[in-house]
Design a protein that fits this description.
The chain is mostly helical. It has six helices and two strands, in the order H-E-E-H-H-H-H-H. It has helices spanning 2-7, 24-49, 55-67, 88-103, 105-111, 114-118, and strands at residues 16-17, 20-21.
Length: 119
Amino acid sequence: SQIFKLRHPNGVSVPLYKGQSITDNVFNSVFTFVTIMGLSIIILTVILSAYNLDFLTSLSGSVAALCNVGPGLGPIIGPAESYANVPTGAKWFLMMGMLLGRLEFMTLILIITPAFWRH
């Protein structure tokens, strides 16, 4: 739909999913979630890299923590290894990532929003 809009700026395009149109609210919600997830993975990867973990270990550890998918990849947290050799500070950030991924991003953002507590 977005590519169609770029190619035909005056055209009318209605994105469909299972025969029903996708509203702007649904699109914005999905886009927001994907953006927050992507930024969280990038930020956690950079933090883990600061603990001298290689890129593959940092990236897969971030994805494993935030998406709750199990073991990571790489020489330290690969399928045949465990998180035992990860530095303690990095484990704390991985635990925060696991909580963030398990409790869902939007719920946590809602809880820290002052407007939520006013009503």
